[in-house]
Amino acid sequence: MAEKKLMYGNHAIVEGVIAAGCRFFAGYPITPQNEIPELMSIRMNEIGGVFVQTGSEVAAINMLFGAAAAGKRAMTSSSSPGISLMQEGISYIAGADIPVLVVNVVRGGPGLGNIAPAQSDYYQATRGGGHGDYFTITLAPNSAQELFEFPRLAFELAEKYRNPALILADGLLGQMMEPVELSDELVDPNSLAENEWALSGCKGRERRIVRSYDLRPGKLEEWNLRRIEKYEKIKKNEQRFEATDCDDADLVIVAYGTCARVSDAAKKLARDKGFKVGLLRPITLWPFPTDVFADMSKRIENFLVVEMSCGQMIDDVKLATEHRSKIHFHGRPGGGVPTPSEVYKEIEKVLGGAQ
Amino acid sequence: MPEVKILEEVCKGCGFCCDNVCPVDILVLSPDRINSSGYHPAIVTDMEKCTGCGYCFKICPEPAIEIYK
Amino acid sequence: MKKIFGRPAGLTETLQRYCPGCGHGIVHRIIGELLVKLDIRERTIGIAPVGCSVFADEYFNCDMIQPPHGRGPAVATGLKRTRPECIVFSYQGDGDLAAMGTSEIIHAAARNENITVIFINNAIFGMTGGQMAPTTLPGMKSTTSVKGRDIEKQGYPIRVCEMLASLDGPYYLERCAVDTPKNVIRSEKALKTAFMNQINNKGFSLVEILSMCPTGWGQTPVQAKKWLGEAMVQYYPLGVYRDRSKEEK
Questions:
Q1: φ, ψ dihedrals at C70, nearest 5°
Q2: What is the pLDDT of residues C33-80, one digit of tens each?
Q3: Are A124 and A268 in a shared domain?
Q4: Per-residue pLDDT tens for A291-333?
Q5: Residues with Cβ within 8 Å of residue C39, at least 6 apart in sequence
Q6: Interface contact flag, A52 C104, Cβ < 8 Å
Q7: ipTM > 0.95 for the complex
Q8: Measuring CA to CA, how many Å separate A221 from each of A216, A228, A276?
Q9: Rounded Cα distance, A64 and A47, in Å
Q10: What is the DSSP string of C143-166?
Q11: Residue A171 maps to which CATH number?
Q12: Could you tell me which residues of chain C have a Cβ less than 8 Å from any Cβ in chain A?
């Protein structure tokens, strides 16, 4: 019987990462994710893992590059300004086709912003984030339970496709407490197969090189094109979403993470008033679940995108629905969190007065 | 008797080995030989004198020098 | 006849693309020899920097990784902590280590991370075409200090060994040069010590090596070798700046 525990979202991430067999954490303090390095420093010590508090987020992501290039599961966590500092490293890691896990507990921006929850790093997470043509697999949990479960999924996807993976949470998910059903199934790091690309010393084999550069004419283009093939495969196989009450809906709310929780409550308010409202929650932000949008846009007249930003995911909704539906938006940037009644009012605006 | 072998195709003609390095001063850049990269490689003027000390090898960046004994 | 000196098996057969008279090749050869002499080639992971020696991953005959500019010591930390049985060295130039990567090198040294760092100081940015480096001497010409480094406007050079010696962390710090056979032999000894310290789990070792860049300096190779011995060594004195094995005795 799996143990059920009341946990902070940030603590659930730590236990999820450890359950996934990861034994390497490097990071730098930043609010609102400090509970992650704090608990990591204790837990890694207990289980014989590695915890390094770094001189900067730049150093943290590069320690991950080393640890992951050595073939080990490695993760870091940070919040928006720190994730910006990591973009150089993420670009190199993506360029070298190395799997790592980066958790972003997003806060208000731009700049130093504030320490309130936000979703304004969506573009950065889903468009690569650093220089060059690349994408990172991006998962968006909406509960402490998913914060516990997604690290394992993230590692598995990252390794399957040799690609960095991100978990995009926010300050509210990280700081709130919820019951979490802890899995009995723990990944033993020693049971993970050695990769055929990992650096370990060249005893008994050809030497290996991990790099992101190729100066030979035409070769880097070929490499990028091969990577695009990989991305197409990920887009085809890994779109994840959760759709509730969408079958008869006149309006479907589109929201992820905290906004999906708020929107779920708004949907209930609307249903109580007789409005036919559904909720579509993207779980993978990259690859964006375009197929379900393409399908739904043939029969759903209205989508209401709710984000804690000035509107970033809305672009993907517009692209995926190809303008067949009307796309409405409600956003709260700079650390603002929408309330269910606020979202309900937007629904009312679109669908008219009480039915 | 030690013997110095200059790998002519590897040598970039920097002249390090010819400049106050060889204790018996038997290395010079060839004025007339030229390798496929366009460099004048070092040559040995008097192999008999070589002591096999290895200084020329140690200062050679390529390394384009081998020493046999 | 037996070969007593020649290309070591720790280097690949790939011919190096460095300019004539570049000091990188001498240091590469020393490391290549140590990989064999210390019997560590098959368990070594090397780190190539960004700069001329970015190509080092083609030249060292061991597992290699090429990280972002200046971040070698952080990557080395990740490698060494997860594979403590491996020998990890970070090969870095002065732009890489003393400009872009100052934070990474200082914190790796402060943690006494059990890695070996080889720091090539040639007082110039080589690969990008001879711009001023953090180690460019006062008055020295570069393509971004065409009348000579003006200390009023462009500040002073950084002496890396002295700076790191102000920390308690590092186990071994030495500055050498490769301008004469005698100095090359001293460099060989220092690098051997730096690798042995890691093998014996002693901690952070850094060997700074003053090295020629004739192209960046606008000199012939022979002039460059001479200038290093006359001018550079004055500003960057050779010697051991930290050796905790002495304190242990």
A1: 90, -10
A2: 999 999 999 999 999 999 999 999 999 999 999 999 999 999 999 999
A3: no
A4: 999 999 999 999 999 999 999 999 999 999 998 999 999 999 9
A5: none
A6: no
A7: yes
A8: 10, 11, 49
A9: 19
A10: TTBTT---HHHH-PPP-HHHHHHT
A11: 3.40.50.970
A12: 41-45, 48, 54, 57-58, 61-68, 71, 74-83, 85-87, 103-104, 106-107, 111
Same domain membership, residue A160 and residue A43: yes
Give residue A88's Cα distance to chain centre: 18
Q: Which residue of C has its CA nearest to A202?
A: C42
Write out the two tokens for A167. Answer: 């978990």
| pTM (whole model) above 0.90 | yes
Please, what is the Cα angle at A332 between A331 and A337, to 5 degrees? 120
Thinking of the domain B3-68, which architecture would CATH place it in?
A: 2-Layer Sandwich (3.30)
Beta-carbon contacts of A257 under 8 Å, excluding residues fewer than 6 positions away, are A119, A140, A141, A142, A168, A169, A170, A173
- C-chain residue closest to B16, CA distance: C222
Q: Verify A-C touch: 3 or more CB pairs within 8 A.
A: yes
The first and second tokens of residue C178, run together, are: 């490769």
Q: Report the residue from C74, C82, C106 with minimal CB separation from A50.
A: C82
Domain closes at, from A187, A211, A236: A236
Dist CA A57 CA C103 (whole Å): 11
User: Do the Cβ atoms of C104 and A26 come within 8 Å?
Assistant: no
- A–B contact (≥3 CB pairs within 8 Å)? no
Q: Please give, rounded to a whole number of angstroms, the shortest distance from the CA of A263 to a CA of chain C.
A: 41
Per DSSP, the residues of A95-143 read HTT---EEEEEEBS-STT--SSB--TTHHHHHS-SSSSS---EEE---S
CA distance A261 to A246: 16
Count how many residues are written for chain C.
Answer: 249
By DSSP bridging, strand C3-5 and strand B3-6 are unpaired
Q: Which of residues 24-83 of C touch B (CB under 8 A)?
A: 24-26, 29
Angstrom distance (rounded) from CA A239 to CA A288 = 6
Q: Do C25 and B39 touch (CB under 8 A)?
A: no
